[in-house]
Amino acid sequence: MLIPIKAAYLRQLTFSVIVFFLFISCGDSNSIGGGYVNESEIKIDTVFLTNLPFQSVDPYTGQLAYSPIGSFNDPLFGEISSFALFKPSIVEGNEDEVFTNSASTILQLRFDTTFVYGQENETLDFNIYRVDELWRGPAYKMSDEVTFTTSSPVASFSSNEIDSTGYIDIDLQGTWKEDFISFYTDSTDSRDSSYKYLDFGLAITANEDANQIKYLRFASSSLFISEPQVTQDTIALPMLDWAYDLQRTAGTVNEGQFVMSNTYESFLYFNLEPIVQNLSSQNFVRAELSLRSDSLSLARSLDINEVRTENPPLRYQLGPSVDLAYDLGFNDISSQAIYDSGIYRFDITDVFNANIFGNTPLEDVYVYVSQNFGLLGFNTFYDASQDPENAPKILIYSVVDEVE
To answer: Which of 94, 191, 198, 320 is at a distance of 20 to 30 A from 280, taking alpha carbons?
Structure first.
C-alpha cells in the first residue's frame, strides 16, 4: 500500500505593502498628443514595492488538459513528484453488447510530445494500479491524498514504447478488467451509481528514481473493448474523470529574490488602493506593473539536456473571491502580462481608472503564475532589495503642462 505523505499546506500569509514614490521628469521624447490636442509632456512616477505580500492557496488539479507524471529534482524549485488518477467512462454501454472476461481492454494513452520537465533523454517505467478510495477530478486538490495497492499492477509499460505521435496501447488485465466488464454490461438501474461509488479508477506512477516529468492528455485517451468470439465493432470509451497529485519540497531561493509557481504555494496579493489615493494627479495616461525574473539563474541552474517550462505566463485578477483556488485556476476574467527579455509587464491602466471613476475596489489584487492547462510553471523574481532596474515597481505615466 502506498500512501503519499505531504507536508502541511501553507495557508494565507498576508503582509502590508510599503510603497514610496520616485518622481522622474522626462524630456521631450516622452510626449503624447498631436492632431486633436496640443502636445503634452509625460511625467513618470515610479512606485517601488517593498515588503511584498504573499499568499498561498490549495490548487485544483483535476480535469486539466495536461497531467504531469514522474519526478525531477529541480536545482532551484526543489524535488517535484507527481502521479495521475483516471477513470474510463461506461456511458456508451448498452444491454445488446456482449462482453465476457475473455474480452480485451486496451488502454490507449496519449502523451504530449512537445513538453517535458527535467532530463529530456530519460526513459521512464510506468505502473498502473487500482485506486482504493473515492475521488473526484473536479474537486481534487493538490493537498488531497488517495491510496492504491501496489502489490499487483494492472499493467506496466515503458516510455520507450510510446510512438512518435505520443500514443501507446496498454493491455489491462486482472481483477480490474473483470470488474470493469461487469459494470459495463450491468443492465440494472443501479449501473451508473454502482460504478461511481464502487469502482475508484486507476493510478499511473513512474519509477521512483525518474529524472523527468511527462504530460498525459487524458481528454485524447481512450479505453477500447473488443470480444474476439463475437462479431461486433470495438467499443471506444473516453475518460470519465482524471486528476494529478503533486508533491514538492522547497527549493533554493537566492537572496533578494522570491519564487512564484502555478502550484500556488506563493503568489502576490496586493492592496492598490493606497497607491491610487496618493497619485499627485489623476490625469495619468498609463499605469504599469513590472516584475523582473532572474533569467540568468534560470538558465544556469539546469544541466545539459534538462528543460523546464520557460517564462510561464503571469496573470492578475481582482477579488474578492469566494473560491480563490478555482478563480486563479479557471477564471477567464483576468489579464496576462507581456513578457520581454526577463520582464513581465502588466497594463493596469483600466483598473486604476475603474477605481477613480467607477469606485471599483482594488483592495484584493492577485498576481500569480497561470495554471497553463496543467503544464508546471515556476519562476524566480527580484525583490525590492535589488537595484531600481530590477526591483518590482509600478510606473504611473501622467500628463503635465502643455507645450506651447
So the answer is: 320
Quote the CA–CA distance of 301 and 108 in Å, as a whole number: 36
Residue with cell 494492472: 154
**Dihedral-angle region of residue 64 (phi above 0 means left; psi in -120 to 50 means alpha; beta otherwise):** beta
pLDDT of 101 reads 77
pTM of the model: 0.87
Distance CA 55, CA 265 (A): 8
Task: Quick: pLDDT tens for 67-103.
Answer: 999 999 999 999 999 999 999 999 765 556 667 778 8
Strand partners, 236: 224
CB within 8 A of 99, min separation 6: which ones? 181, 184, 185, 225, 227, 230
Residue-level pLDDT at 309: 94
pLDDT for residue 11: 30
Which of 208, 212, 200 is closest to 112 using CA atoms?
A: 212
The three cell numbers locating residue 16: 502590508
- In the prediction, which pLDDT does 281 show? 58
What pLDDT is recorded for position 97?
66
Residues of the chain with pLDDT under 50: 1-38, 404
